Amino acid sequence: MKNIVRSLEELMNLAPILKAAFPYDISIAICDTEKFLAYYPGDSIDLGIRAGQIIQADEPLYHALKQDEYSVANVPREYYGYEFVGTVLPVHGEDEEVCGAVCIQVRRQTELREIADRMALSLNQANARISQVADGSGLLADYSQKLLIQSDATAYSVRKSSEVLAVLRKVADQTNLLGINAAIEAAHAGERGRGFDVVAKEIRRFSKETEQSAQRIRDTLSEIQSAMQGISQAIGQIASVGQEQAASTHEISSFIEEIRAMSEQLNEFAQKL
User: Fold this and answer.
1) Distance CA 273, CA 267 (A)
2) What is the pTM of this model?
3) Residues 6+ apart with CB under 8 A from 1
4) CA 160 → CA 71, 223, 237, distances in Å?
């Protein structure tokens, strides 16, 4: 299909209107078969084209004019500092020969894609870290639960030790009573019971030392039992916090995964711009 125009001047007059009507920021160039006639830069895309600038043979525009073909080219950022899409539409005079072209450039949203890529990378890293924290919180809760079981077992052992001390105290009391009875019998025996009196005193001294030792052990066990109760409560709180943290980090991980999916959609959208 021939794109016939009466003159290139008409295109030059129409170009600013087309640019204003276009919903995106674009730049428009009008050329004949050898040079640029006019250039209307955009707000974010300005190729620095000047009226009278010669079209170089290595430019896609040159080949589009020579081949009389509509051309679309992605221009990388290495040339102008940003990526854009350039289109070339050859136009024909009333003799149906190529007399020039309309060139439109639309800047691609490379920055938007880069932001989406960085978002995805950061979210992936954050998700990995949170997964590690969640795993650590789960292990902490497991270890705390094991410690709690061991703490309960220790407290049970302490209680059993208290029962042994009760027996020991009973033995001390019986030994003391035996010593008293021995002393009484030694007194009744008079001179002949003097040796037996010495044994009775030793029995009573041993009984007293046994009672004192039992009391010290009892005090120590009482302190241990009190400490174990505090430790058990603290471990229970740690286990509860660990479980809550594990649940919270899993929820956060789910939120991050949703945001990551949205960043991928954003990237796909940016690819189309």
Assistant:
1) 10
2) 0.46
3) none
4) 93, 15, 26
Phi then psi for 6, rounded to 5 degrees? Answer: -75, -35
The closest alpha carbon to 82, from 39, 119, 125, 48, belongs to 48
* Tokens 């030793």, located at residue: 202
Q: How buried is 39 (Cβ within 10 angstroms: 0-12 exposed, 13-18 middle, 19+ buried)?
A: buried
The span from the CA of 28 to the CA of 41, in Å, is 7
Q: What is the pLDDT of residues 15-66, one digit of tens each?
A: 999 899 988 889 999 999 999 999 999 988 999 999 999 999 988 899 999 9
Give CA–CA dist 158/221, Å, rounded. 6
Are the CB atoms for 109 and 98 separated by under 8 Å? no
Mean pLDDT of 112-140: 66
Q: In order of start, what are the domains of the chain with their CATH numbers?
A: 8-108 (3.30.450.20), 113-272 (1.10.287.950)
